[in-house]
Amino acid sequence: MAFDPGILRPHVPALLVGLVDTFWLCASSAVLACLLGIVLVVLRRMGPRPLAVLIDAYIAVTLALPLLVLLYVSFYVLPDFGLLLPAPLVGVLTLAIYYAPYIAQVIQAAIDGLPRGTVEAAVAIGMPPLAIARRIVAPQALPLLLPTMTGLGIGLFKDSALLSVISVHEFMFAAKSVVAETYAPLEVYCMVALVYWAATGLLHALTRRWEQRIAIAHGVQSHGISSSSNASTP
């Protein structure tokens, strides 16, 4: 079979639109996942015991399920209970719900790794909790968070390809549409693999540089996690 990448030329605009949609979906999911992860950590540490138990149960269940199962449940099962949402919104919410427990665990581990004396000293002088979090905890925890958060962000970007199974118009969905029109899966999926490889490599390089700058600024040695490893991704 001859390899003819020129067959993709008429479909480049549609593929670019799908790629842009993927970036928007991933950015929205990442922001929501970070916010939900922070909320989980705060409620788990400061909320009543029954609420902490519920949060632990949610985290345990979410970590035990594949993302594809959550997508199917959200898109095909919830409408039976009267909850019918647009496919892109289902995709964003499911990615956020799936990645929030991982982010919560990373934040929790970073906080537990901080020197206790600094926080205790801030409490002793009467500093309010919000100021402690913003001026003491966040600057020290950020260098510890970034390597693993980078891996999670790359994992979220790659997992966004699964949204095509619920008909979300993103990059993989656009690629499948091109395959249906051209009957050229070799050329299309080779191009898809190259785009994902380039995008994840760029994301890792940018966050790696940011991580190094923050580590130098705070005097913390940086130990980045390569995007090729799955140590920090689900």
Number of domains: 1
CATH architecture assignment name:
Orthogonal Bundle
CATH superfamily: MetI-like
Alpha carbon gap, first and last residue: 36 Å
Give short descriptive properties of this protein:
single chain; 234 residues; MetI-like fold; disordered C terminus; mainly alpha
Blueprint (SSEs and pairs):
Elements: H1 12-46, H2 49-64, H3 67-77, H4 87-112, H5 116-124, H6 129-159, H7 171-182, H8 185-218
Domain ABC transmembrane type-1: 19-207
InterPro entries: AA_ABC_transptr_permease_3TM, ArtM/GltK/GlnP/TcyL/YhdX-like, MetI-like, MetI-like_sf
Family: Belongs to the binding-protein-dependent transport system permease family. HisMQ subfamily.
Structural account:
- It is a single chain.
- The chain is mainly alpha-helical.
- The chain is built from eight helices and no strands.
- The two termini are 36 Å apart.
In short:
By secondary structure, the chain is an all-alpha fold. Residues 220-232 have low confidence and may be disordered.
